[in-house]
């Protein structure tokens, strides 16, 4: 590669045509280069261009080889442990008996748990789906906060409402990533991160629902405030219930799914309210209820699969590493969050459009 750099500069300096033309133009002496042959110019341009792109491609390839070496080094650091079958797991980490093999053994070291995210086991996809989801939400959230204020009717309130969506969803993904990474540490640490994971789910439901309430009942402040307060109370109640130790036991799986489902379904009342006042068609299109429904379908499907442990229930041991219910649940949650984000950004655009003003008999 260094040889190419040398060649690049040799060509640039010795072949006077291009170099002289370039510096000549810089110095305002382009007239004296009018006698440079166009054929020489073309030849030198092609040579320089091909050398430039070859150098760029080789630099990228070299970086990839270096990354691969770092990856291999990280992976070989953890060869002192091997994945174990479900029966060998201690009771505090036993959760899904349809996943027969590929479990991490208990590793009472945060460093070892973190390094394990680069290896293949039952939690790998759970970890990466929400880590990638967190990074995407973080980037989109930062980007959203820098949208010029001229695009908003009420910049402070609107940015605050939308930031709740980013914060709620981002915290859910971050806590989930941490839980799945450190669940194998020890009973105490796993219990702490398990509760943090439930916090995250409650934050996400509240964070998704509040911006929708804010925009959908924008012209009707009293019901808007009422629903906002009720949603917050439901969120706090869910967090309080989920902190009980029995809640995180494997046998409480239907209870967990049911509680978060009831909490999410609490949003049906304001949705029906908006649909009745604005009419079904306007609520579905302008009010973005269509996207809210798509998000609800993603979440509901994910929760049902998670609670019933489908598909591994029907093929025990076949979905240990890829596509077991928890992974599908994670993917559907990320998809639902992205869909909802799209719906909220559409609502925000409508609010700042000429038709977005408030009428006397409208809530939207
Ligand atoms: Zn999870």
From TrEMBL:
Subcellular localization(s) per the UniProt record: Membrane
Residues involved in Zn(2+) binding: 180, 326, 330
Single GO MF descriptor: metal ion binding
One Pfam family this sequence matches: HlyIII
Superkingdom as given in the UniProt entry: Eukaryota
Chief place where the protein resides: membrane
InterPro entries: AdipoR/HlyIII-related
TM regions (residue ranges): 6-26, 125-147, 159-184, 196-218, 224-242, 254-277, 289-308, 328-345
Biological process, per Gene Ontology: adiponectin-activated signaling pathway
RNA-binding listed as a keyword: no
Keywords: Membrane, Metal-binding, Transmembrane, Transmembrane helix, Zinc
Record flagged with keyword Metal-binding: yes
Membrane topology: Multi-pass membrane protein
GO terms for cellular component: plasma membrane
PANTHER family referenced in this protein's UniProt entry, alphabetically: ADIPONECTIN RECEPTOR PROTEIN, ADIPOR/PROGESTIN RECEPTOR-RELATED
Similarity section: Belongs to the ADIPOR family.
Protein known as: Adiponectin receptor protein 1-like
Organism of provenance: Erpetoichthys calabaricus (Rope fish)
Lineage of source species: Eukaryota, Metazoa, Chordata, Craniata, Vertebrata
């Amino acid at each position: 590669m260094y040889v190419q750099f040398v060649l690049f500069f040799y060509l640039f300096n010795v072949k006077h045509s291009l170099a002289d033309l370039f510096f000549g133009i810089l110095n305002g002496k382009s007239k004296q280069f009018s006698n440079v042959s166009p054929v020489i110019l073309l030849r030198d341009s092609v040579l320089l261009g091909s050398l430039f792109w070859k150098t760029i491609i080789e630099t990228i390839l070299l970086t990839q080889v270096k990354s691969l070496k770092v990856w291999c080094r990280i992976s070989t650091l953890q060869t002192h442990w091997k994945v174990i079958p479900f029966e060998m797991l201690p009771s505090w980490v036993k959760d899904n008996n349809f996943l027969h093999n590929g479990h991490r053994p208990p590793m009472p070291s945060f460093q070892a748990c973190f390094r394990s995210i680069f290896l293949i086991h039952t939690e790998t996809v759970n970890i990466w789906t929400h880590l990638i989801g967190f990074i995407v939400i973080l980037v989109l959230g930062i980007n959203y906060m820098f949208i010029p204020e001229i695009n908003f009717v009420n910049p402070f309130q609107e940015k605050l409402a939308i930031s709740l969506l980013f914060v709620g969803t981002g915290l859910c993904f971050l806590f989930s990533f941490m839980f799945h990474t450190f669940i194998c540490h020890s009973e105490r640490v796993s219990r702490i991160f398990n509760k943090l994971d439930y916090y995250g789910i409650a934050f996400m439901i509240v964070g998704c629902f509040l911006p929708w309430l804010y925009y959908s009942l924008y012209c009707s402040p009293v019901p808007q405030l009422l629903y906002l307060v009720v949603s917050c109370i439901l969120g706090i109640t869910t967090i309080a219930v989920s902190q009980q130790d029995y809640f995180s036991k494997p046998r409480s799986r239907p209870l967990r799914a049911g509680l978060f489902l009831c909490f999410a379904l609490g949003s049906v009342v304001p949705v029906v309210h908006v649909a009745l006042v604005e009419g079904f068609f306007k609520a579905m299109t302008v009010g973005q209820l269509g996207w809210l429904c798509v998000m609800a379908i993603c979440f509901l499907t994910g929760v049902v699969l998670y609670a019933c442990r489908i598909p591994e229930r029907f093929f025990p041991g076949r979905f240990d590493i890829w596509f077991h219910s928890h992974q599908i649940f994670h993917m559907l949650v990320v998809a639902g969050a992205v869909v909802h984000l799209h719906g909220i950004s559409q609502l925000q655009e409508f609010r700042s459009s000429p038709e977005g003003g408030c009428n006397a008999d409208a809530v939207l």
